[in-house]
Amino acid sequence: MSEFQPKIVAFCCYYCAYSAADLAGSMRLQYPPTIRMIEQPCSGRIDIQLILQAFEDGADGVYVAGCLEGDCHFLKGNYRAKRRVAEAKKILDDVGIGGERVEMYNLSGSMGPRFAEVAHEMHDRIKGLGPSPLNKRATKKEVMTGDCS
Amino acid sequence: MIVAEQKPFEEIAKMVEIFDKVLILGCNECVTVCLSGGEKEVGVLATSLRLYRKQGDRPITTVEETLVRQCEWEYLDEIEKLVEDVDCIISMACGVGVQFVAERFPDKWVIPALDTKCAGGAVEHGLWEERCGMCGECILHKTGGVCPVARCSKRILNGPCGGSQNGKCEVKDVDCIWDQIYKRMMALGRMDQLMEIELEKDWSKARDGGPRKMSREEVMIGE
Question: What is the ipTM of this complex?
Answer without folding.
Answer: 0.90
